[in-house]
Write a structure and sequence with these properties.
It is a single chain. The chain has 84 residues and is mostly helical. The protein is 85% helix and 0% strand.
Length: 84
């Protein structure tokens, strides 16, 4: 454990950011998995799930959780899957 006050504050800040980032990444992964599962089954709400998944990927990229190229790659794969 740090002794210096600024280091103690940094630990608290880092923990908060870690929790926030983990939740955001989890939400993105869940949205993508829901879309994939719905597409496999042939559900009715594939359109909404596709939009939610692409939005979640864009949001994660804008926050810096994933790189822009990964976001573009993921969205491209989802778009190809959606078009089939």
């Amino acid at each position: 454990m740090p002794i210096i006050k600024s280091a103690i504050e940094r630990v608290k800040t880092n923990n908060k950011a870690n929790v926030r980032n983990t939740a955001q990444m989890s939400a993105m992964r869940t949205a993508v998995k829901k879309f994939e599962a719905a597409k496999t089954v042939g559900a009715d709400n594939v359109d909404d799930l596709y939009l939610a998944a692409t939005s979640a990927v864009d949001k994660a990229a804008s926050k810096g959780l994933i790189k822009r190229n990964k976001a573009a790659r993921d969205k491209s794969r989802m778009a190809a899957r959606y078009a089939k």
